[in-house]
Amino acid sequence: MNKWPLYFVAILLSFIILIPAAYASQVQVTVDGQLVSFPDEPPYIDRTSGRTMVPVKFISDKLGATMKWNKALQQVVFSYKKDSIMLTIGQNYALVNGKKVPFDVPAEIRNNRTMVPLRFISEVFHAEVDWNPDRNLVSVVTAKAKGTWIWNSSLIETEPDNVLRFAADNGVTNLYLQIDTDMASKTYAEFIRRAQERQIQVEALAGRPDWAYRSKREQMRKLIGWVGKYNASVAANERFEGLHFDIEPYLLPEWKTDRNALLEQWMDNARWIEQETKGSGLTVTFDVPFWLHTVKIPETDYSFSAWLLEKFDRLVIMDYRNVALGKDGIVENADAIMREASTLRKQVIVAVETARNSESDRTSFHSMSVEAMEKELQAAHRELARYSSYAGFAMHDYPSWAAMHRK
Length: 407
Known about the structure:
Layout: H1 4-24, E1 28-31, E2 34-35, E3 44-45, E4 52-55, H2 56-62, E5 66-70, E6 75-80, E7 83-88, E8 93-96, E9 99-102, E10 108-110, E11 113-117, H3 118-124, E12 128-132, E13 137-141, E14 145-150, H4 155-158, H5 160-169, E15 174-178, H6 185-197, E16 201-206, H7 217-233, E17 242-245, H8 254-257, H9 259-277, E18 283-289, H10 304-311, E19 314-318, H11 330-344, E20 347-353, H12 370-384, E21 390-396, H13 398-406
Parallel strand pairs: 1-13, 14-15, 14-21, 15-16, 16-17, 17-18, 18-19, 19-20, 20-21
Antiparallel strand pairs: 1-2, 3-4, 4-11, 5-6, 6-7, 7-8, 8-9, 10-11, 12-13
Helix pairs in contact: 7-9, 10-11
């Protein structure tokens, strides 16, 4: 009997078995749910430390940092916002804003490409990194904004240290500060300057349900005019970053009795705000309920949330649930507006409630621990990161969120 066919089959089977195994051994990296390709030098696992090494171009292309290479000193320097990270080939530490930070594997050159430890760089840039050994997959979720509301503007007079310390300790990037036009400008200037030193932007917050009425336009004119005059009178690091509107006309009785007429007034005021703020250099944000996509522009099938997204920089979805996943969870409720914003290339912040809420047990984290809330938010963060429109979380509001930490 001729045995060559059997040998041939055995060899063929060995290739069928080995090729997938070899492919699976390659390290894969995703950033915000998107698989990253490495055309020049692929990532690999350092045998000594077990750390994943990636080419430096990945850091600049995918994490949004700028990079400079000093061939003479064998150093690579990354800049991201106000942070600077310097790595030297062969050294097991980096200088982060001038401070030495050790890590367990040095940067190295491989096939003429500078390779750096992914976890260290990602964590320095405030990204989350997870390793799935079953799939040889590293998942990177980039850092997003974190905001909170301050409805009582007197707090920046009575306890500015407490506010800023809490914000910095909890990674806050944006404070939505209600404006009292009777407060001295120097109070705002000092607070905003100190906030910006901590890389925290301050937005001028205002609004009430009846601002949907055309008759209330003068109140909006006063706010916009005051912020514009204030910003023109102070230094660049003392200015408001944007205008933040919380109007919520669905709390008015007309929402039930004559919704279309109320929507027409709200739309007129939104158009007016768009014109009044054009060329101001201010970002304009609207707070909206997560269900606003179900409300249609009168006489059309176009959603009101998409209409607002077309006109303004971003929306904050009041997604007041205390469960990340599943039916009626944070992620599911955010989905529709997230998709709209991704299509329109606009940003969405997802807001959760920390204040006592009488609607239902699911609408606030008030009765839960900070650790339990963080666990849910991290789960939601991983899912929401796949949307290009996802810009981060916001906590409503500062006093109740701070009270959770004091429990």
